[in-house]
Amino acid sequence: MWHGRFKHDTAKIVQDFTQSLDIDFRMSEHDIKGSIAHVKMLGATGILNQDEANKIEAGLLKVLDEIKSEKFIPSENLEDVHMNIEARLTELEPLGAKLHTARSRNDQVATTTKLYLRDKLLQIREELFNLLETILNNADKHINIIIPGYTHMQQAQPISMGHYWLSWFEAFIRDVKKLNFALETLNECPLGAGALAGSTLPINRFMTSELLNFKNPTRNSLDTVAQRDYMLDYHFFACEFILHVSRLCNDLINWNSQEFGWIILPDEFCTGSSMMPQKKNPDVLELSRGKTGQIIGNMIDLIINLKALPMTYDRDLQEDKRGLWSSIDTVESIIKILIPLLSAVEVNQDLALKNLTEGYALATDIAEYLVMKNVPFREAHLKVGKLVGFCVENNLKFQDLNITQWKNFIPEFDEELLKILTPEQSIKRRNVYGATSPEQIKLQISEGHERLNNLI
Ligand code: ARG
Description:
By secondary structure, the protein is mostly helical. It is 62% helix and 5% strand. The strands form three sheets. It has a two-stranded antiparallel ribbon with strand order 1-2. Helix 10 (229-256) runs antiparallel to helix 11 (283-290) and helix 12 (292-306) runs antiparallel to helix 13 (320-343). The two termini are 45 Å apart. The mean pLDDT is 96. The structure holds arginine (ARG). Residues 20, 24, 80, 105-106, 109, 313, 315, 317-318 line the site of arginine (ARG).
């Protein structure tokens, strides 16, 4: 394309090194979409005559057909998807030589990437909605199932499994908002920024922007070809999402182990061991957790690429897509597999309760009961702490204590206290907004459905 300026052809080894076809060919249909909008605009503004514009558009549609039917054979000698499509177009329709009027690959690659990214993000958002629905269904299914809640990896207070699921609803709905933000930042059309400074030709940037469904053309041509912040915003979403996934997966892996044991994973989503016949391993959850580094690494890769990069386009930017694709593919595959896996998770209520009743997770309930009897909380905390210490030393559970032992530590003790000292009561009585009572969970589930509908 640039042989006018050169005496010698580009060396083959340089062609191989500089090509980006292996990375950018997946955007071929979006590249054609951008070119069609561009040529329509060239026709409408009279830069090309209408007949020329129509012929180029028809040629582009032919190339599109070839791509869709996999007849198109791109060549790495032509460097990237953009040059390949233009070259094939010009073979089919010599007027193709006019397509690149008032355009550079710098504004073109930004446009094509934004179009591709927008479609991908909308697909991911759709899948995220399905994941959120799954979580709401799980919350509903497990509303009355009681599990130990942990802080510091120590049993803290009983919680409803439904409440646990809803904690992930909050996390993933924040991710949807991040994704929406990424969709918003890419919503400006780069076409017409040219190589960096715009064009001397009387193009209509508002028209191409509208044809491609962007909100408006970008406002500064230098920034347009230099920036990749719209990709960063996707990466920020992806990192937050994978951090959430890694924590969720880790909980389920732990609670599925023999030491905890109350989570039952579906056979279809586990794998066995080649050596140990008894093994049923949570590999899908482990692999999802194990992909965290790749997603975060892809974000860091782009951040380092952009650091101190001179205004405006530099070829370094061609390296922006490898990690982006990898991250998108990984996020998509994780959401797709988590939906059926999570919806099949079962809870063994007996095992979860056994864990709980053997501990002292109801200690706060006793302290709060004393507060209702007008004991200052600090004093109540001290009394119950001493009671727990006595129990631990003598290997006793709360339910093993006789009335004298109770009264020794807690003079305010009465039969009422014993009635509330069950995991069921503990959960039911935590009835403040956002807490773990079945009543609150029901409210959060119905609000959750509404919030999802408002986001769609
Ligand atoms: N393949 C290139 C990329 O993805 C297209 C832009 C090349 N621009 C240039 N001035 N050499 O970034």
